Amino acid sequence: MQKRMQLRGNLMLLLTAMIWGSGFVAQSAGMDYVGPFTMQACRFLLSALVLLPIIALRDRTGKSVNRPVTRGEKKRLLVRGSVCGVLLFVSTSFQQFGLMYTTVGKSGFITAMYILIVPILGLLLGQRVGRSVWLGVVLSLVGLYFLCLSGGIGGVNLGDLLTLACALFFAMHIQYVARVGGETECVRMSCVQFLVNALLSAVGMVLFESPSWSAVASCWLPILHAGVLSGGVAFTLQIVGQQYTSPTLASMLLSLESVFAAIFGAILIPSQALQGRELFGCALMFAAIVLAQLPQKDTAKAAETEQSAHR
What we know:
The chain is mainly alpha-helical. Helices cover about 80% and strands about 0% of the residues. α2 packs antiparallel against α8, α4 runs antiparallel to α12 and α6 (about 130-150) runs antiparallel to α13 (about 275-295).
């Protein structure tokens, strides 16, 4: 029974990665009709709305963990959700603008570098980082060279740099969630962060873009995909799936979003198909991502030592 549940969880996480990977195509296609901020405002508002019935269902079935009851707990939820929303807004804004200058496949792989940046940020916060992570960092930098610098240093694409910034801020988002997520009802916090992201995006939309209802209506399918599937559905699948598998295996499965982004990009947008040099860079980066997620004996022993010291 346990193996069957683990297989079920792994399949959910694989489906999550597939949805997130295809979401890069939806985000890119959406900007043929609307600006980046308009796209974000619409998709994250939809994501928040999709989570509302999920929250109600979890409350009714008693699956809401750390549900806020007191005024202080509700205020803490709003503050933490707002911080997550700001970090997510900055990250997704860099990603959305980056897609204006780079391909879907490149965006997917460069975004996946957050899995390498997370432990590096952890090192700055006093967390232990194993040797395999450092090897992964070096390997990913070599992969980035082949993926992004096809014309030498002068060939750096603006979209690639913006997407790297996206990976950095998303790594900060992950570190913050890791610190507060265990004390906060996760689906509610996600709903708050989606609403904050939508609000900030709406401000940018009004200040820098000239959206029209006709343009939004023409973009309904990419917005629906990015908002409902990539936001609400995939996030819920991630939460449920991670209950039945290890964090290491979950991270490796979710990192496959970069592979699916390249696959969907090549199939649905043939002009963005990656060439041989770029595919080699993607392969190196994916190997680095997997390497960084492998169990680390040094880190495990250190964790056991710290646990013994606290007993």
